[in-house]
Amino acid sequence: MESVINTAHEIHFGELAKAALQQYLNQNQYSKIFLLVDENTNKHCLGPFSKIYTDQTERPIVIKTGEINKTISTCVDVWDALSNLGGDRKSILLNLGGGVVTDLGGFVASTFKRGIDFINVPTTLLAMVDASVGGKTGVDLGVLKNQVGVINQPKMVLIFPEFLETLEERQLKSGYAEMLKHGLIADKHYWNKLVQLNESDYKSHIQESILIKNGVVEQDPTEQGVRKKLNFGHTLGHAIESYFLEHPDKKTLLHGEAIAIGMILEGYLSHQLTGMSRIELEEIKKVFLNNYDKVSFTQEDINIIIDLLKHDKKNSHGNINFVLLEEIGSAITDVKVPFNLFKEAFAYYIE
After folding, report:
1. Which of 9, 145, 228, 255 is catalytic?
2. Does the global pTM surpass 0.85?
3. Which listed site, 5, 74, 93, 156, has its alpha carbon 20 to 30 Å from 101?
């Protein structure tokens, strides 16, 4: 796969990624090269990565796995580790992991010593097509997603598709949801290709999803306008993800699983408010329910989830702002939604 070059950083694949990493580190002569992993990537990905990058000298910094650990407390542990290991402003941090590692690692790097360089090496499909690209870094505040962070670009993103072989199908499907989102907001032809995929085909479409996301980010790096389109499904999806993360009796949802629900719900809102046809709404619902287990919601669940919407990062001046679809492949931003439609959307999902 050809590299993706933008004004902020380069995205390399496979053998080109290996060569680019070695060349970049040789040219820049960092004082220290640190590696951040979580428990899973320490176990499953560190060995393969050590064959890609053989000059690693520092022991990896290991954090606990899972969204529940994407917190300021974990950041403090990593900041302490960097300090204790002699990190300075000429150090660099390599983030080897999924979205939690690249989000948190990017934030840690952006704030340690007022900012050191970092490179993202995503190991999950979700991180490859979404989390590691675009410069969004940060952590959660309690169960509220990504409330603290900065937009700061990595020096490079390095994609090694072989890491996907370490993942179970549920994790692959989580990333697939973000790929489907790219089709919904930007490219109907891509959506049509994706709905025909089986698990073995994901690798062949990673670059296309990155190109779509990268094209949006290039137009609007700090999310003042068009970049908001990447949040389709995330306003309700993040609220659902947060609620299931917090509730002791609920099975924790992966990011893509929650966003898949969010896209059905926000698809319904799109049909009601921005002109998307009923035929396309039914198509969206069918595709997601064919790929993701249906989740049960009580009325109490729905009320709490709706209340969580007030914490969404796109909100301004007391308004909850949604990204909705005019049709598959075309999204619009900053849509105000009447309160009564939220429960209608859940009713449509449940029926």
Report:
1. 255
2. yes
3. 5
